[in-house]
Amino acid sequence: MTQFPKNFLWGGAIAANQAEGAYNEDGRGLVQTDVTTGGSVDSPRYTTYIDKDGKPGKSGGMGHHARIPEGATYAVLDDFYYPNHKAVDFYHRYKEDIKLFAEMGYSIFRLSISWARIFPNGDDAQPNQAGLDFYRAVFEECRKYNIEPLVSIWHFDTPLNLEQNYGGWKNRKLVDFYVKYTEVIMNEYKDMVKYWLTFNEINNTTMFLDMMGNQGSDEEFQEGYQILHHQFLASARTVTLGKKINPNFVFGNMICGITFYPATCDPADILAAEHKWQAGIYYCGDVQVKGEYGSYAKRLWDAHNVKVEMEEGDLEELKEGKVDIYTFSYYMSNNVTTHEITDKVSGNFSMGARNPYLTYSDWGWAHDATGLQYYLEKIYDRYQVPLMVVENGLGAFDTVEADGSIHDDYRIDYHREHVKAMSDAVANGVDLIAYTTWGCIDIVSAGTGEMRKRYGFIYVDMDDAGNGTLDRTPKDSFYWYKKVIASNGQDIE
């Protein structure tokens, strides 16, 4: 195998809303996941509310895709289970967890800051000191073990007050609220955090509108592209401001990376796949890395009668606030075809023509390590900036044996293939600087709200109903990844 760079960063990743719990402690405000129920691969998660007449209700969809009736108020209801409320209690167990990460040999740990811990309502005049103190304690614990924090500033957790009373990111006012929040945390942790990611999987806003079996409406695309423009602007302003606070800050975008293949050699399929790359992957990458909208953007807007509202100076700000590195998640590839689909994949956030050359997880996600290599080489060729793979993993059922051990060879096999793919990409000239697996520890699934969809190298004793001790137990994959890190990716057997 090719040697990874000497200072390559190995680690893992979690998100505040999926790991921390303590949803109503120490002044934290509510976010969208706090009113999102549990679900499964077969049952959707719901957003709960109280309507204008005081009646409880639920609506399909999550985040800004959730639609609650006019006059309704987001609400936590007694008759539903909300898995993110407790999550896996990282809030109270972070020292134990970070010690385990250090035992694996982590040199980097990706986590997110919950905006609602810092500004509970999003529009507060002053930050919540308890929230600032918590993350300072987490970063100090990382420093104790020489682990570099990689901080996601926003990971699908806009304060609920901003969603309810301002309309969320459709409203340009959120740009100012976000920048106020980022200014506070960048000043607070300017000597503790080097790497910042402005928006997690920012491209999901529009990419999934035509990937889930139903074509989004023109209204939904109008909303989605407007949201993205506001988030691009917030990201750019944060980068520009951050460089003044600490010139050594390194900023990255974060893209939901999916490799799109044409399902056949029909030229129409090849063109359709390329258009999927443009709409799903390049659109956000071009703005955040190149600082400008791609030449194809007008075609995407015109296809849905979209008119993105921009103000004078916006495009100049986007150009000034370009990110330094490109980061992305990678779990699967997707087939694109213009033909009738006779063998369809259907699962959690997956839809389309089945690839006969690949196997699929219990949640319908294609196992495709070669797709990761393809993505790395294609993206590096386009942008020529350092890359990080900041999410990659296998969600699977784990079995605890009678002696308490967890033998997850399937997870080891998955990661072995993807480490090899990264090595091959490095051999082909890709400047890859970090790898953080998704779910270094078991956490609540974002898509389904399940615990049984486990990604971690560390088992957490909790089931889908929130029952369990929350005890942590290293799986076989824990010791395998420890060996990989110690050998800088050379010993993957």
CATH architect. name:
Alpha-Beta Barrel
- The first-to-last residue Cα distance is 12 Å
Number of beta strands: 18
Task: Please give the CATH class.
Answer: Alpha Beta
Low-confidence stretches: none
CATH topology: TIM Barrel
Query: Strand pairing plus helix content: what structural class?
Result: alpha/beta
The largest beta-sheet arranges its strands as 8-7-6-5-1-16-15-10-9
Number of helices: 14
The proportion of residues forming helix, as a percent range, comes to: 25-40%
Largest sheet: 9 strands, parallel
The CATH superfamily is Glycosidases
Global outline = globular
Q: What percent of residues are in strands?
A: 15-25%
The Cα radius of gyration reads 21 Å
Oligomer: single chain
Please indicate the count of domains: 1
pLDDT averaged over residues: 95
Description:
With 493 residues, the protein is of the alpha/beta class. The protein has one domain (9-32, 83-486): TIM Barrel (Alpha-Beta Barrel), CATH 3.20.20.80. Helices cover 36% and strands 17% of the residues. The protein is built from 14 helices and 18 strands. A nine-stranded parallel beta sheet has the order 8-7-6-5-1-16-15-10-9. A three-stranded antiparallel beta sheet has the order 3-2-4, with no helix packed on it. A hairpin with a 5-residue loop joins β2 (46-50) and β3. α6 runs parallel beside α8. The radius of gyration is 21 Å and the shape is globular. The relative contact order is 0.14. The model has no long low-confidence stretch (mean pLDDT 95).
